[in-house]
Amino acid sequence: MQRVPADWIAANGLRPDDTEGIRAHLLGEFAAWSPQTLRMITDNDGAYVDRPLLALPVPHTWEHSPSVTLLGDAAHLMPPLGAGVNLAMLDAGELALALARSATVDDAVRGYEKTMLPRSTDMARLLEGGAESLPAVPGPDDERR
């Protein structure tokens, strides 16, 4: 993972389908890393796939609907810092219980959102900007570790 502008491929004179060019660029970026670690770049099959990491604004809320709600990444997309899947599983369990225990879908959705929205906002605030520090972490072969 690296922190780069969304258009980093084009900005470096590359195309998304230029796997060899992207590989060469990445090898230059990580030239100080050990040969064993660089094999993650050199020894893989298939085309390079750019997977940008995105996050929703904090707080992310929506107007209540009596029969529709969001959970998981749709409700609280965050950088991959270890909380997202746990929140999604908690969301699913809480929504299922709310649906089983409530008289109406609207009651269930309101109850679920009343708990989920503050929790996800708190977690998103805690993690907000967290991915920005990841490139500063020493590489796996850095002697500063």
Count of helices?
Answer: 6
CATH fold field value of the largest domain: FAD/NAD(P)-binding domain
How many discrete structural domains? 2
State Rg. 20 Å
Averaged pLDDT: 86
At the fourth level of CATH, the homologous superfamily of the largest domain is FAD/NAD(P)-binding domain
Q: Return the CATH class of the largest domain.
A: Alpha Beta
User: Helices and strands: which structural class?
Assistant: mainly alpha
The CATH architecture of the largest domain can be given as 3-Layer(bba) Sandwich
The major beta sheet can be summarized as: none
- Shape category: elongated
Question: What series of H and E elements makes up the topology?
Answer: HHHHHH
- Give the termini separation: 18 Å
Secondary structure tally: strands: 0
Report the helical percentage. 40-55%
User: What are the segments in which pLDDT stays under 50 over at least 5 consecutive residues?
Assistant: none
Estimate the strand proportion: under 5%
